[in-house]
């Protein structure tokens, strides 16, 4: 699964200030009231002044790294399920109720593709521990009830992000 997103901005969406190297940037993947999927990047300290869009899919924080001369920006437009999982599960990102369903779904999908493997439950019994097979890094994902309601909710979110499948056309049977 690939998501096409804009690369990280170079200016704060709230203040308009240029980002400097190692600034902490809060990144939002959201849907506007119009249905448009957007990315908003802002200085983490401006987060309190940010008026969030109609619906937020997920939020994460990264240290800003300026683009290098000659870097291909087209490569940064693709956000795969794997690196979205790594971004949301990163221990430096605070877990939150907005990200958790998407993170749980991504973990389930990546486990099925054998990109991550379960390695047990956290000591407090609240999180599943996964090993990312390419990096051997451990990540913790909050446990949840993966019931029909969960899948219906996450399907709606993913439909907007990656597009909904075309409905099957029922064949028309003509009788004579």
Helix percentage:
10-25%
Given as residue ranges, the uncertain stretches (5+ residues, pLDDT < 50) are none
Oligomer: single chain
Cα end-to-end separation: 45 Å
Walk across the major sheet and give the strand order: 3-2-4
> What's the number of structural domains?
1
**Basic shape:** globular
The count of DSSP E runs of length 2 or more, i.e. the number of strands, is 8
Radius of gyration: 19 Å
Number of helices: 3
Instruction: Quote the beta fraction.
Output: 25-35%
Order of helix and strand elements from N to C terminus = EEEEEHHEEEH
What would you note in describing this structure?
The protein is an alpha+beta fold and 176 residues long. The chain has one domain (2-162). It is built from three helices and eight strands; from the N terminus they run E-E-E-E-E-H-H-E-E-E-H. The protein has a three-stranded antiparallel beta sheet. A hairpin with a 5-residue loop joins strand 6 and strand 7 (127-132). Helix 1 (81-89) packs across helix 2. The longest helix is centred in the C-terminal third of the chain and has 15 residues, at 148-162. The radius of gyration is 19 Å and the shape is globular.
